[in-house]
Write a structure and sequence with these properties.
Layout: E1 4-10, E2 15-18, E3 24-37, E4 43-54, H1 57-65, E5 71-84, E6 90-103
Parallel strand pairs: 4-6
Antiparallel strand pairs: 1-3, 1-5, 2-3, 3-4, 5-6
Length: 104
């Protein structure tokens, strides 16, 4: 099963790209924060940055409301895609594809 749930804050304003077939994609970064106790019992926190992509109706929602710092709950799946950069090297991108989104 490929299922991802994230709750965090948008760390970037969404970037919108229109593909050659006319579909639009919204790409943005979400920051999550986890807290834990280290070996000495001290409270520590750690941030993670996640690349996300959204299609369909979520593009319109993010165009209208998406701003850096906004709290979001995301449900989606992990995807990977390949592309060639300007020098012809093959690159891999892994990101969370948004299936559902709740603004917090």
């Amino acid at each position: 099963m490929n299922h991802v749930n994230l709750i965090g804050k948008m760390s970037s304003t969404p970037k919108f790209v229109e593909l050659s077939n006319g579909r639009k994609i919204a790409q943005f970064t979400l920051t999550t924060k986890e807290t834990f106790l280290d070996a000495e019992g001290n409270m520590k926190s750690k941030k993670q940055w996640h690349q996300l992509s959204a299609w369909g109706r979520w593009v319109q929602v993010l165009e209208e409301l998406g701003t850096a710092g906004m709290g979001l709950a995301i449900e989606g799946k992990l995807t990977s895609r390949f592309y060639k950069n300007s020098s012809g090297e093959r690159r891999v991108v892994s990101e969370v594809e948004v299936n559902d989104l709740v603004i917090l």
